Amino acid sequence: MLKLLADSVFSFDVEWIPDPKSAEILQETPPADGPGDEARVSFEALWASARKDGQPEDFQPYLKTILCRIVSLAGILREKVPGGDCSLKLVSLPVDPADPAKCDEKVLLANFLKSVGRKKPQLVGYNSAQADVPIIVQRSIVNGLPGFGFSDRPDKPWLGVDYFDARNSEYSIDLADAMGQYRDRPSLHQAATLSGIPGKIDVSGSSVAEMWLQGKLAEIVAYNEFDAFTTHLLWARLAHFSGLLSSDQYAREQAQVRELLEEEISGGKVHLEKFVAEWDRLLAITGQD
Fold it and tell me: Closest by alpha carbon to 208, among 193, 197, 228, 224?
């Protein structure tokens, strides 16, 4: 299971869509600068190129991540503070879904790479070794970005932070692999809800492309934030099982997540009220604490 609890932990999740520019380059579709019918044509062209014989024409196959565009990235940053306690902060990109400049993929990636490259937190995700980290790397390369410290690698796993070796580095934690031992891997929704933690609420990853086409980026960011809270709560549960958090510390971690949710709701993120309500519902059903 988990072996290290770093002073800085970032439980994160990434959302992406088929990239219209990829379709323009590889499938010769018309340019599509934003949501709408032109982008829908681009999406369909990419899906059609990935469908296997016999699959329905409306089937949306999983695309190689390099063909996709990151539209949102959210996470819970946990940092140790003087005195031994920890602070929690919600990090959400784009910071303003209504500002096109802040929504640019290159801007999102640069902000993420600079922050992670500077702080060097433990990265915690769900299926992150297979999806989230690769798409961050691939799309950063496509956008011509430097690694900003995120791409640094030590000579040996125990000599420093390495985000590209989830099986040997303690700084790239994939909870799906930790729970499934690389074989029988539950979905995030299954692992979370059975543990009394909110999973998917109203939206699933397969809905993101259609939401983006309809101009609902703010709703995608909200969904992304749900997954960030879910991932962090599941990480805390695994850290407790692994002996990295005592029972008292685990209870305190959950209380701090509650406090963060209340703070964000008071600050205007009222969509998080759904997360709190679902958390209470699942706790009542499962009898978890």
Answer: 224
135-165 exposure pattern, b = at least 16 Cβ within 10 A, e = fewer: bbbbbbebbebebbebeeeeeeeeeebbbbe
How many other CB atoms are found less than 10 A from the CB of residue 263? Answer: 14
Residues 286 and 276: their CA atoms lie apart, in Å, by 15
Q: Which residues contact 280 (CB under 8 A, 6 or more apart)?
A: none
> How far does CA 238 lie from the centroid of its chain?
18
Q: Where are the domains of the chain?
A: 8-286
Instruction: Please write the tens of the pLDDT for every residue from 147-181.
Output: 999 999 998 878 889 999 877 889 999 999 998 87
Q: Which fold has domain 8-286?
A: Nucleotidyltransferase; domain 5 (3.30.420)
